[in-house]
Specification:
Helix content is 26%, strand content 26%. It is of the alpha/beta class and 281 residues long. The chain has one domain: Carbon-nitrogen hydrolase (Nitrilase/N-carbamoyl-D-aminoacid amidohydrolase).
Amino acid sequence: MNAAKTIMRLALLQLKGSKDKAANLQNASQKIREAVQGHKPRLITLPECFNCPYGTKYFREYAETIPNGESSQTLSKLAKEMGVYIVGGTIPEMGDNDKIYNTCTVWSPEGSLIAKHRKMHLFDIDVKGGIRFKESETLTAGNEFTIIEIDGHKIGIGICYDIRFEEMAKVYRNEGCEMLIYPGAFNMTTGPLHWELLQRSRANDNQLYVVTTSPARDETADYVAYGHSMVVDPWAKVVKSAKEGEETVVVDVDFSLVEQVRQQIPVYSQRRVDLYNTTKK
C-alpha cells in the first residue's frame, strides 16, 4: 500500500436542521466550503436527515428523487467544486411505486453519485406507557449492502439503527472494510446509553474505524437528537467527539492501525468455525 494513502483526513459536520429545506441545504453548503477551506479533508460526512426534520410525518413531504432532486444536485455540485468525497448523510428518497426510503448518497470529487445506501433496519418501537415510533409506517427498508472504495480503502455504509446489528457490520468486515460510516440520529434516551457503546462495540468486534455523524441537538425540535458525532479507532478508542451543538470534527485516520490491530489480536483467524460459522462463505 502506498504510504501516502494510509492517512485520510475526515471532516464530520454536525449540523443543526430546521423545517426549511432551502436553509438546511444552504447551511450544509456553507459548512462544507468552510471545512474544505479550513482543513482540506479528503472525505466529508453529513448527518442523518440533514435536509429535513427527523420524523415519520415529515418523510413524504420532504422526499426527493435521487440523483435528480434538489439535495442530490446540491451535493453533486459541492463535491465537484470542492474536490472532495461527500457521504451525504441521509435524505428521504422517493422511490418507485410511491415507496419512500431513508437514503445515504455518496459523491465523488468529480460530482458523480458513486453509491446509494437505503437504511436496512427500520426503527420501530412501541413501549407501553412510553415512546412509540415506527419508521415502517412511512418508510420501506433497503435490501442491499453498500461498500465504497476511496484511495484503496473499503468503507461500509449504514444508517443509524443499522449500527445495532452486528451481523451487518461483520458482513462488511468479511468483505474487507476498514471503516464503517453511519449517519445517525439517536434520541435523548438511547443516545446517552448506547451511542458511544455501539460504536466502540462495532469497532472492537471488527477491528476497524467507526464514524458517526449526528444532527446537532435542538431542544425545540419534535425529535431531539443526542449529537456527539464521533470517530472510533480499531482499538475501540474514541479518537474525537463533538459535543451537542453545531460543530465540525476533523480527524486524520491512519489506516495502517487497522492491520496492526488485526495482527496483534488475530481473532478472525482464531475463530472456531468448526463450531460456529459466521464467516463469509
